[in-house]
Amino acid sequence: MSKRAAVAFLKIFGTLYFLDGAMGVAFGSGFLDLGIIRNGILDWPLSFKILASAPHLILGGVAIFSGFVLSRD
After folding, report:
1. Do 24 and 31 contact (CB within 8 A), yes or no?
2. Banded pLDDT at 73 (limits 50, 70, 90)
3. Alpha carbons 9 and 23: distance in angstroms, whole number
4. pTM for this structure?
């Protein structure tokens, strides 16, 4: 496809995925799988919430960095 479409995907996906991870750390549930609606706020230990949300934060952060910083001409 086009570079513009790839950059738009990285920006949108990265932002949503990172916010889902941040929400997982804060509330124990995310929004992409509607967990916050189905389960509400979960009282998990903070270390568990961080470890469970780490892939979202890392992958989302890499996508955000790639979409907003590395894609500059």
Report:
1. no
2. confident
3. 21
4. 0.90
Q: Write out the two tokens for 21.
A: 């991870």
Q: Which residue has the tokens 């124990």?
A: 28
Q: Which of 5, 15, 9 is nearest to 59 (CA)?
A: 15
The neighbour count for residue 18, using CB atoms within 10 Å, is 20
d(CA 45, CA 32): 21
Contact present, 60 and 25 (Cβ < 8 Å): no
Q: Is 25 helix (H, G, I), strand (E, B) or coil?
A: helix
Distance CA 13, CA 35 (A): 18
**70, 61 contact by CB (below 8 A):** no
Per DSSP, 1 falls in state -
Provide the residue ranges of all domains of the chain, joining segments of one domain with +: 3-70
